[in-house]
Specification:
The protein is an all-alpha fold and about 240 residues long. Helix content is about 60%, strand content about 0%.
Length: about 240
């Protein structure tokens, strides 16, 4: 007598399903709709947001450095002012010193780069120097960029690595560009004293005076930096002849 025990299904068989006559095929399962995955945000958008955060951190750092000085500025205060977590700062800067160096690099180095350019075709060296000095006075001496210079003057002796960075990135290329302009002016006969090329600091002295004066004494005795510059260049190049 045949056994009435049900035959166990062949669970691991890889053969096709039984298609014996009369057997009905199992209804196909309805496939689940595939929802489209959200498109990944473009890398350019992420880079733009990162650049915005970095700019906000730099701006907040400048505010803190001006308000507290380099020594007393804390990264916690910079993060709070920038509206970011403190850890976000470390994604962009390793410490307070590198943050200050970035201020120098972004605010002052491009300006000094203009000094290396020769005068426009047909232009005099004096015209080139006047243009650079006007830009320096307007964009540095009379703005918060001047505060960066003043901070370096005030705290550079206690933080020689910051002073070294400023000298390397700003002072040294600035003096080299100024020396080249003086030598060009001497060769053209615009400057009668070739020894001036040994001391290009003399040319830029009014700009530095304007930065320091504006901070310390501007409220007592406002300085006409542009007129001081004119007198200074008259002493070096000779007075302009009116045509």
């Amino acid at each position: 007598m045949p056994s009435s025990r049900p035959r166990p299904p062949d669970a691991i068989s890889s053969k096709p399903a039984d298609r014996r006559q009369g057997a009905k095929a199992a209804p196909a399962k309805a496939s689940k709709p595939v929802l489209p995955k959200p498109a990944p945000k473009p890398a350019s958008s992420r880079a733009a947001r990162a650049a915005e955060r970095r700019a906000a951190i730099i701006e907040a750092a400048l505010d803190e450095f001006i308000a507290r000085g380099f020594t007393a500025t804390r990264l916690d205060d910079v993060a709070r002012r920038a509206g970011v977590a403190k850890g976000t700062i470390y994604l962009h800067f390793k410490d307070k010193e590198s943050m200050f160096e970035e201020l120098i690099r972004t605010a002052l180095v491009p300006l000094i780069g203009r000094l290396a350019a020769p005068p426009p075709f047909g232009g005099s060296v004096r015209d080139a120097l006047e243009g650079f000095a006007r830009t320096f006075i307007q964009e540095v001496a009379m703005t918060r960029r001047g505060d960066i210079v003043r901070l370096i003057v005030a705290e550079g002796p206690r933080f020689p690595s910051v002073a070294d960075f400023y000298y390397r990135e700003v002072v040294s290329p600035g003096l080299a560009g100024m020396r080249a302009l003086i030598e060009l002016a001497v060769s053209r006969g615009e400057i009668a004293h070739p020894e001036l090329a040994r001391f290009p600091q003399i040319i830029v002295a009014p700009a530095i005076v304007a930065v320091i004066w504006q901070s310390l004494f501007g409220r007592h005795a406002p300085l006409d930096a542009h007129e001081m510059l004119r007198v200074h260049l008259d002493m070096i190049f000779g007075e302009r002849r009116m045509t």
